[in-house]
Design goal:
390 residues; seven-stranded antiparallel β-sheet; single chain; seven-stranded mixed β-sheet; 12 helices
């Protein structure tokens, strides 16, 4: 071991946060080695958004993130803004656009991955692929990273190994296991930003497969407006994904299928027209959905009782669903939970109990809502670690 090279930083994981940590540290003159288990760097990033990368959001703030410590993301998010990533895109002449709700998209996720790799390499960082990490130890202030019969020495180690979401892309629990080797707590992990499985009593919704409607969904005082897609398994789309992030087992979700319409007022306004409840609703929503909403209550409005109007209004504007569950890691965008933020510095991402050990990106118990928030967390947390490690 005498004379073995000691890196300033070995980064475990060549995804979004690992590359950001690497290029940030390398630009400071640090010697950086990025180790990636896959043969392809930033494999998950390259397919984000079906290739159209929702890389950030102009509305980035801690309110769009779920964590056991809700204040934890604030410092890192303040330290790296969407405008700073836009500046990086501009440097590489990459085009982007703003869409609904402040979402920022680039035309080609692969271009962003290649941009980050270029920034790393041009700044002096070295990247190795196909490296499977078996363990990490720290002795006399220096880390030893064990991989495939090799030992890499480093003054700092950044674990940017991602989560267990998307195992088909090679995702594993390696980051959690490495954290546990150092006695670091893991918040229970579960699939997030995934489709909803409906209970048997709502089997009628399968007849709506392929239909998308704009809705608002509500849970414990929080609400989200977005599209809901009916599938043969249940519900998908941004609204269902949002629910999967915040839902607790056994909890009812309130769905408003006409969030911009007071159904009672609409039905009362059509009383004199001789229409039925179904005919009125079919004019403002897909007919198949209207049929489900009016099942048992399809009467002529002229003779409809207040109870009937109230019942229909409750179905349309406040439909209660208790999900049977959510799709697993293979269909989930991310996994919530992970390395507990209570054991990390919110400013640097460094472990409070192991000096020089950092955690970034999805391996940390910080999960963003749909809309570019998770990738921005990767940039912000990677930047925080890269600019702080000594």
């Amino acid at each position: 071991m005498i004379g073995m090279h000691v890196w300033d930083a070995v980064i475990i994981g060549g995804g979004a946060s690992g590359l950001m940590a690497g290029l940030t540290a390398a630009k400071r003159g640090k010697s950086v080695l990025i180790l990636e288990k896959s043969s392809v760097i930033a494999r998950k990033l390259r397919i984000t958004g079906g290739g159209n990368c929702n890389f950030s959001n102009l509305n980035v703030s801690s309110s769009h993130y779920l964590s056991e410590n809700p204040h934890f993301p604030k410092s890192a998010l303040a330290g790296y803004t969407p405008e700073e990533f836009l500046s990086l895109l501009s440097k590489h002449s990459l085009k982007w656009e703003e869409r609904d709700n402040g979402e920022l998209f680039a035309f080609g996720a692969t271009y962003i991955a290649d941009m980050l790799i270029h920034e790393c390499v041009s700044s002096g960082a070295k990247i190795e692929t196909g490296v499977n990490i078996s363990g990490v130890e720290k002795t006399d202030g220096v880390f030893s990273v064990f991989a495939g019969g090799k030992i890499y020495k480093a003054r700092n180690v950044v674990i940017a190994a991602g989560s267990v979401a998307a195992p088909q892309l090679g995702a594993t629990d390696a980051g959690y296991r490495l954290a546990e080797q150092f006695g670091i707590q893991i918040v229970p992990v579960k699939p997030a930003l995934a489709g909803m499985v409906l209970p048997e009593n709502l089997a009628a919704f399968t007849s709506l497969t392929g239909i998308t409607v704009p809705v608002s969904v509500s849970l414990r005082g929080k609400s989200f407006y977005g599209n809901l897609l009916f599938t043969h398994q249940g519900l998908s789309g941004p609204a269902a994904f949002w629910v999967s992030l915040y839902h607790r087992e056994g909890e009812a979700v309130a769905v408003n299928f006409m969030p911009q319409c007071d159904i009672t007022a609409l039905l009362n306004s059509e009383r004199k027209a001789g229409k039925t409840v179904l005919s009125v609703l079919s004019a403002v929503m897909p007919k198949k959905l209207a049929q489900i909403m009016t099942d048992g209550f399809d009467v002529r409005l002229a003779g409809a009782s207040r109870e009937v109007l109230t019942a229909v209004n409750e179905r349309v504007n406040n439909f209660k669903i208790v999900p049977a569950g959510f799709l697993g890691y293979g269909k989930a965008e991310v996994a919530s939970g992970g390395v507990s933020t209570h054991g990390l510095s919110s400013k640097t991402m460094e472990s409070k109990i192991v000096k020089g050990l950092y955690f970034t990106g999805e391996v940390v118990d910080v999960t963003g809502e749909l809309g570019g928030y998770n990738l921005h967390w990767a940039w912000a947390s990677g930047f925080a670690a890269g600019k702080s490690l000594e």
